[in-house]
Amino acid sequence: MRTFDLAPLYRATVGFDQIADLMDRVLTNDVGQSTYPPYNIEKTADDAYRISIAVAGFSDNELNVEVREQSLVVSGRKAEDEGERTFLHRGIATRAFERKFQLADHVHVTGAAHENGMLHIDLKREVPEALKPRRIEIAGTSKAIEGTVN
């Protein structure tokens, strides 16, 4: 049950809409979130990440990876079984799924690979040069005064 009201946050802040939206999304979606398929998120370098999703039983053409509005959406839909097969026990889950990951600003998907029942999605954070911190050289007082007198 959700007991937080984020309306005062929207009224009292300017430019923090993304943070409030993220908090709102986490609070509302986390309650009934499915745990299928299981996944890992790992940091592979300072600005690189990898999401590994266990998709045993799915082939490449039954999986879909796409980026929509700063969200990474991974879905899988098993093709209809060819022919009549009778299972005595069916323990491998091959039900359809859709898993969403919210991507931070400047995080881009660089590739995806499917091997040994695992789907690996590589991500990289690429901050534009204009947003990176830069050092400003401080001029001495004599240079500053000489520069203004012309």
Q: How would you describe what is shown here?
A:
With 150 residues, the chain is of the alpha+beta class. It has two domains: 1-33, no CATH class; 35-134, Immunoglobulin-like. The chain contains three helices and seven strands; from the N terminus they run ααβββββββα. Strands 1-2-7-6 form a four-stranded antiparallel beta sheet, with no helix packed on it. Strand 3 (63-68) and strand 4 form a beta hairpin. The relative contact order is 0.16. The mean pLDDT is 80.
Task: Write the topology of this structure.
Elements: H1 7-12, H2 17-29, E1 39-45, E2 48-54, E3 63-68, E4 71-76, E5 97-102, E6 107-115, E7 118-125, H3 141-148
Antiparallel strand pairs: 1-2, 2-7, 3-4, 4-5, 6-7
Tell me how many strands there are: 7
3D shape = elongated
Q: Kindly estimate the percentage of residues that lie in beta strands according to DSSP.
A: 25-35%
Which H/E pattern describes the elements? HHEEEEEEEH
Low-confidence region ranges: none
Structural domain count: 2
Largest sheet: 4 strands, antiparallel
Q: What is the topology, as strand order, of the major beta sheet?
A: 1-2-7-6
**Known CATH architecture of the largest domain:** Sandwich
Helix share bin: 10-25%
Supply the number of helical segments. Answer: 3
CATH class of the largest domain: Mainly Beta
Global mean pLDDT: 80
Class from helix and strand fractions: alpha+beta
